[in-house]
Write a structure and sequence with these properties.
Dihydrodipicolinate Reductase, domain 2, Alpha-Beta Plaits, 11-stranded mixed sheet, alpha/beta, 3 domains, Rossmann fold, homodimer, elongated, 6-stranded parallel sheet
Chain lengths: 432, 432
């Protein structure tokens, strides 16, 4: 090969980062691959927009076919986003024997298996490291680094916006709305932050990681999702008093053959390695039966970090091209998907209640829990001045989700409970 | 291939872990590779020793040739340790077209380039992920995950024994000797702990990582090494007062074309991700120009974690065997080695002095520093009751090593300085 030609679908922040890295690290790339790499075409929506890049004439195009059908283009790099139309583009690229590198978690979480199948059928590589946790090489860690181990748990802080918000709320005692506004002003949060703060973005990444880590096709719809919009400064304050840190945790757990995947705000012991992952940083904690605890930490987003993952995937593809072994990297899932039932899911729980100031309330509360076989690890009662009721905050020992939900139902029916203020999982107390 | 046969050189704790993982994860391995894997021979020193393993008859041998010359053995796994004789064994294995996986940092730090050359000449794979930071897939992270980036800094806590000792000293205010004894009793430190506490073990790992991360042949002899034997509880206490944590840091830095690699006890800001890596855990912090800050965390040693890395390397080799592309993974260093000169090395420094209680001492001290263009970031003076002198603890702003060493010389000559109690680098205040 004299040179390798890249076609870009999209030239936003990540696309611009890819162009910059290819330019700045041309020597390193050529040293590893054995030939130069150049961007031949880039699909954009606006030919005139200033992207802060010097781009040669003839590279930008408005027509996807200029990328997808150009016989000289070896690798299509998809950084345009979107799901259905983008999937069609990539299927066409693969049919035309072009390798694909994508940073698109939305697409991979929904259509990953179909696209990987098409890649394999066309002897093409399809890599997507950048779709999860930006610059952190976590997918490679799961697939190659822990290839010989059996992963039983993954816990991820995989959304930078929510981690930034929760970090600020924790350190400065501020409210969600107040910090969200600051994050938007700083550009850490989108104008429409729904996918981030609602947990959907993290859920997509957890679906992708669970599919690889557990070797079974976990769909986005299998992930139970709860966002951080209801998290209050009080919850975080009480969590701190109990020695816990509040994080939006993607939680994937395997017990025997069955798995559970969720995204929700949860409390972690302060000593847990994820508890000190702050601001917009991401990290994924992985527990393997043989390796024990590992953690991968880094920037979860951003133009250059994400572009690093894209170009590293390109390097991998280009090495495979030179060796004539493209389309062989993906391993089909080993197991049929089996999801845990409600009664098979267990955790510790944090609960904050407002109760009437009456004799016998605490005794009644305790008996509701103990009737379901659930006991407390920690409990704290505070009078709420002038309100006529008290605040009770507690952390249970490990309990099954169905027992815990039955308890919540009974609490709601008990007249002395004024309100259930909040309820969270407490995770990370056990390693495996 | 009907099956892949492994020959083990050594069957100590890591070797036994390899046997266990191959047995326990046979299904996962076969799924990935497409055929079963079995251990055919294992070189040991004692046929009768109880290893806590059920081993079939005929597998153990006292003769290296039974492993190295057996035409049915595809991969030789070296977990016996040692340097010169072991090198000869591996060269023979490679000559006999056997792929090699080794966990031997001592060997790779000294003879890595020669062995890699022999592997390439014989179209064999030679992988050594387990030689650095046990179960953490850091070498793969450097080579594949950050393939497209330019790494400028690596900081590693890469020795579990010393991290265990420093963590205990920090949390419990105990002395080095006291904690070392406990670590030996618990099996976290060897009976002869010299290579660990003296920094040599960490230096070997830093030589291997620098060679890969900077793409130049960094030898063990290029690494400046200082161990933790002189670290006192007072140093750690003062560091804490200033907001720093003491760690044995492997430090590798690239400035333009020149690099510096050292292992020494150093102070890190408490907020630095490495500062919360405690007990026997390891972690490697990597800064890349594009990706920014990343960190890889996990168990740095132990039978099963290290064996995980060995077997993952085996999986990689076996995939390459099936694709017919062995011996192509290693990339020769891109750059000629250039080491920084003393005046090109710069850092902040922590210094603890005992000075006479005289008028004008602090002014003189300040002038010695400022004459060399070095100023203080923090300074603290404490009377030492009854001793007739005071303790001064200070942290400088960034200064070049030659200026700092000149200052130390002048301080030694100044009559009012009773003693220079300790001096450490302060690292991690800057990211890049």
């Amino acid at each position: 090969m004299e040179s390798i030609s890249i076609g870009l679908l999209g030239l936003g922040t990540v696309g611009a980062g890819v162009v910059k890295i290819i330019e700045n690290h041309q020597d390193k790339l050529a040293h590893q691959i054995g030939c130069p790499v150049k961007v031949k075409k880039a699909l954009v929506q606006d030919l005139e927009k200033d992207r802060g890049l010097a781009i040669e004439d003839g590279i930008l195009t408005l027509d996807p076919e200029d990328v997808l059908a150009d016989p000289e283009i070896d690798i299509v790099v998809e950084v345009m986003g979107g799901i259905e139309a983008t999937k069609e583009h990539l299927l066409e690229a693969l049919k035309n024997k072009k390798h694909v590198v994508t940073a698109n978690k939305d697409l991979m979480a929904v259509h990953g298996p179909e696209l990987l199948k098409a890649a394999s059928a066309n002897e093409c590589d399809l890599f997507y490291e950048a779709s999860v946790a930006g610059g952190i090489p976590i997918l490679r860690g799961l697939v190659d680094g822990l290839a010989s181990d059996r992963i039983t748990k993954m816990m991820g802080i995989v959304n930078g916006t929510t981690n930034f918000i929760l970090t600020k709320m924790t350190k400065e005692g501020r409210t969600f709305d107040d910090v969200l506004k600051e994050a938007q002003d700083l550009g850490f949060a989108e104008a429409d932050p729904t996918a981030d703060v609602g947990g959907l973005d993290a859920a997509r990444k957890m679906a992708i990681m669970s599919t690889l880590g557990f070797s079974m096709n976990v769909d986005l719809s299998d992930v139970k999702v709860k966002g951080i919009t209801d998290v209050t400064a009080e919850d975080i304050e009480y969590a701190g008093q109990f020695g816990y840190t509040m994080k939006l945790i993607g939680y994937a757990h395997r017990d025997g053959e069955k798995v559970e995947v969720s995204v929700e705000p949860a409390l972690l012991p302060n000593e847990h390695p994820l508890s000190s992952v702050n601001d917009e940083y991401n990290a994924v904690y992985v527990y393997g039966e043989a390796v024990g605890e590992t953690m991968f930490y880094g920037p979860g987003a951003g133009s250059l970090p994400t572009a690093t993952a894209v170009v590293s995937d390109m390097v991998c593809t280009m090495k495979n091209m030179r060796l004539g072994v493209t389309g062989k990297s993906a391993v089909n899932p080993q197991f049929e998907k089996k999801l845990k039932e409600r009664e098979e899911i267990s955790s510790q729980y944090f609960l904050r209640l407002h109760v009437q100031d009456e004799i016998g309330v605490l005794a009644k509360l305790t008996s509701i829990f103990s009737n379901h076989g659930v006991s407390f690890e920690k409990i704290l009662q505070n009078p709420l001045n002038g309100a006529g009721y008290s605040e009770i905050v507690l952390v249970t020992h490990k309990a099954s989700l169905d027992h815990y939900e039955d308890i919540l139902m009974e609490l709601k029916d008990y007249h002395a409970i004024h309100s259930i203020e909040s309820s969270y999982r407490v995770e990370g107390g056990e390693k495996g």
